[in-house]
Design goal:
The complex is a heterotrimer of chains A (456), B (281) and C (303).
Chain A lengths: L1 H20 L4 H25 L6 E8 L2 H17 L3 E8 L1 H13 L6 E4 L1 H9 L7 H6 L9 H5 L2 E2 L2 E2 L2 E6 L1 E6 H6 L10 H15 L11 H9 L19 H13 L6 H4 L23 E5 L3 H7 L6 E4 L6 H4 L3 E8 L6 H13 L1 H7 L9 H7 L5 H14 L14 H16 L5 H17 L2
Chain B lengths: L1 H33 L21 H8 L6 H32 L5 H11 L4 H15 L6 H4 L8 H12 L3 H9 L4 H12 L1 H17 L2 H6 L8 H5 L11 H23 L4 H6 L4
Helix pairs in contact in B: 1-13, 2-13, 3-7, 3-10, 10-13
Chain C lengths: L1 H12 L2 H30 L2 E2 L7 E2 L3 H8 L2 H33 L5 H14 L3 H10 L5 H8 L15 H11 L2 H13 L2 H9 L4 H29 L3 H7 L10 H11 L3 H29 L6
Antiparallel strand pairs in C: 1-2
Helix pairs in contact in C: 4-8, 4-9, 4-11, 5-9, 8-12, 9-11, 11-14, 13-14
Classes of the chains: A alpha+beta (456), B mainly alpha (281), C mainly alpha (303).
Amino acid sequence: MKKKIALLMSCCMAAASLAGCGGSSATATTAATQAPATTQAATTAPSKEASGGSGDVKLTMSWWGNQVRNERTQAALDLYSEQNKGVTIEGQFSEWSDYWNKLATSAAGQSIPDLVQMDYMYIDQYVKNSLLVDLKPYIEKGALDVSSISENTMASGTVDGGIYAICAGINSPAMMYNKTLLDKNGITVKDYMTIDDFEAVSRQVYEKTGYKTSIVYGTAQTYLDYFMRAYDVVLFGDKKMGGKAEDYIPFFQMYETGLKEGWLIDPGVYAEISIGSVEQDPLVNGSSPETMSWCAFANSNQLTAVQNAAPEGVTIGMTTWPSPDPKKSGYLKSSQFFSVGAHTKNPDEAVKVLNYLVNSSDANNILLGERGVPASSKIAQELSPKMDAINQEIIRYINEVVTPNSSPINPPQPDGASEVFNLLNQVQEQLCYGTFDAKAAAEEFFNGANKIMSQK
Amino acid sequence: MKTRKRIGGIIYHVIVCGLGLIMIYPLVWMIMSSFKESNTIFTSAGQLIPKKFVFANYATGWRGFAKTGFIVFFKNSMFIAIVATFGTVFSSAFVAYGLARCKFFGRKFLFVAMLLSMMLPAQVLMIPQFLWYQKLGWVGSYRPLIVPYYFAIQGFFIYLMINFIDGIPRELDEAAKIDGCSYYSIFARIVLPLITPALITASIFSFMWRWDDFLSALLYINESAKYPVSLALKLFCDPGSSSDYGAMFAMATLSIMPAVIIFISLQKYLVEGISTSGLKG
Amino acid sequence: MKEKKRESFRHFMNRESTAGFVFSLPFSIGFLMFMVVPMGLSLYYSFCDYNILAPPVFVGMKNYIKMFTDDPVFLKTIGVTFYFAFVSVPMRLVFALIVALILFKTTKATAFYRAAYYLPSIIGGSVAVAILWKRIFATDGVVNQLLRIIGIKTSFPWLGNVNTAIWTLIILAVWQFGSSMLIFLSSLKQIPVTLYEAARVDGANRFSQFFKITLPLLTPTIFFNLVMQTINGFLAFTQCFIITQGKPLNSTLFYTVYMYKQSFEFYNTGYGAALAWIMLGIIGLITLILFATKKFWVYTEGV
């Protein structure tokens, strides 16, 4: 540990002296933060080889997840160490929100792990602050094989022309619904519902069963993004919001209609659960139809979790999110990414591990698509017979329902987005509590969001 | 007279018991939940008694994560909590004596510094503290979780002990001084034994707080085999996919046991002195 | 000669000011080593634009100005936090004192009673408490069921209502009165038994014993608990963070949780630091006021 620190210190000093000698311009200093990482690697790598068999490389990889993911990922990493003597990879795992606190803190301390699990929500900020390694040179060198990953999938890890992240599992927005309940009442749900279709189903379900409808309460950001794609509005422009205030009215109108007609779930229900937790979602958890929903806005890779959380005898179905124009809205995304941290001393080895996680059958036989459908089509095909029925269904949904009707995902969210989303959810809350109507909500949101973005 | 006393006793016990039940209801609920099947915890949250007692949650929980059994987390927590508690209790008592009994230059300033250090939200110090410990080369070890406590870093404990030392008659000190005792031996021989209740109280608090503290463990501990229980407990939940609430409840139940045991075994020192000195109800 | 030197050294060490200096040394070092630098850094950040990921940029008073001119949520959280602290702290203290007096009486069951009353504080802010608390106050939860038993048919959404949600957090805070209770218990034990015996000889009954001996001698501890609990009350974080997250409509948003959100969710870490220092000012002022009242009601003479 001490050695590591010493190395890091000398590394920092080198960077400081570099910046001191060479650069008077701002660009020189930002380049310098990147530079020592690579020069360091270049100087340490041969010396390690020279020291012979004992030359051990220690890497760390961090991720968030549950018991299953922790176990499988660590097992896959251990297998790598077995196959590559002298390399040990230490897994660091935390719970989702803790994970981002820890990663941000270590970013402040210039010490983020060699390999990190990334999310679409954060990638832009991490790239813009030079915290991730551009993988493009490694792909060109052939160290990282992406030949079996589709262009659409690669695009989501691309920021400003550089490739900073490799998809760890393909995913897509998906609406989960209580198939048992709908079947019993003769209500059918078809893929590519429009908002009118969706409202009709909600109305019907409410009249026949009393079950209500839950629409992304407190987590509206992804859905708004999806919704606005139908109007060709991209949420974030340069230091401002996309579109005009009126463009946002239809989104909020949906809530207003639901409130008026009674099928929208009471906002008080959400005060009694942890929002975002699959197990507590009104789709699967609740004491009466009044407090439950027939549907939930989720992602395709959550089907297993939702089905597991569902009461006995309830089958969960999966379809696309409703949208004014679902075929325009649809996109494939990465459930998670793998990236290489900019402070790594062994970028070559880290990329090798990354390549192993993406392309090795051995590794994926252990991981078993727990993060989503494997990005490599070759691996996905190999794996598919080994998967259970639910995972087969996920693959079918991705390949047959979403892929033919999807367009590339919007660029990742810029700095300030999380504040805008917080505002969105507060406006939505006020709308549901009756403070605003749809028009006022749209204006409040659009103006407030524009102000936040203009200050960034 | 006697029957009146007996009736009084019964009323006392009924009230104390009744209120006590309300106080421990959550614990009972948690223990019961840990025996429920993991996916029924929320659907059956309204019922206290599980339909079927299962022990699987304890088995899966105890298995831990990726090669590290839960017992390791317990050992880590034990180590951190005990070592840090020892440091904080004694260093605080030491400092408190100085602030309570000696007049010296800077005393007021230290007292204010101690109070101020408690008024800044811990969350805001996360990043600066991390950067500082990184400079010291302590990140990745238990040092940030232990060493500061040997320097009486928690103003709360100093202030607590000052309060108790103030309650000791000064005549005792004066008498000892005349007998030729130095400040140091007065502290060790007279004050320390007399503030035993405060030491016990502080030990209970400190152990509990160190045991529950996950924020510093999250920031400073990298190796999962070094995680304490407080951090490991959070690993059962993943909002993005499934969470094993059953296992979490099972381990959470186990994790409060050390604090309960310590409390029960130490609290008698808050009674004993009284009963021997003959105070009657 | 050597002897003399040693003697004078010992004499020097035993001077009151030297002893005070030596005794307070651990804290002086600890404060300089572990507190001054982080506190100073965070004060510096409060004058910066800082988003954790990029180095801080000095912007002067911008964060502080924004707070008072352009942030309605800031004022809202101040209101919520004051309300929470001013209601929960006195209730907690009164409860803790009453229970401590009740449990001071030694019976065979005392150990268990004390453990039972202290348990909620041990469970603290765990996820289990968060889930349970929401269940208790749910529309079909224990509270409404109890109300139904006594004849009030209701499915009132305690957590979903803007006026009652904060009370669920206040009740949680009061319920966890264990630490104050423990401090009261241990200082009750410090009261010399001889005082009671003397009073009994004088024919004082239990009530006058309580008001003439117990209460006055407890005032320093009451003051201590009041100061500590007030500080904790204003810095309360967990209850809100794990249970309501400020919902509904920010009616339960604690100041510290808002600060945390600014720092770690929106990455306005500089602004978060500024919020923290304003809170330090507020708490400092209130503590100062408390200390000013000390001479009117706290019994300071040694026994």
